[in-house]
Amino acid sequence: MIIERAGGNGASSALEWTIFAVVLVLLLIALVSLVLDFYHRSNTPSGTLAVLDERYARGEITRDAYLQARTDLGGKAPAESEATTEVTPPPRRKRTPPATAT
Predict the structure, then answer these.
(1) What is the distance between the alpha carbons of residues 99 and 102, in angstroms, rounded to a whole number?
(2) What is the DSSP letter of 81?
(3) Contact yes or no for 73/49 (Cβ under 8 A)
(4) For residues 59 and 88, is the Cβ–Cβ distance under 8 A?
């Protein structure tokens, strides 16, 4: 006794499985993309405190200005035992004009 499946010769069944596999792969790619995006956003500092930290690291503002601005923006100031060294930018050198050949 032969039992026929819906779809006759099975061609539509293969097409359905192919479509299912493609949809499944696209869903997995979307899921991995969302997870990676969330991971990178959570590990990247952003906002005004990050800009303030960068400016202090580059030496654009003094330690006192940094601590005051950090307090004003609602961030925690580092403990007194942390960041006790003030970093100053190196002095700028004067540029001398190139010597002209005579």
Answers:
(1) 9
(2) T
(3) yes
(4) yes
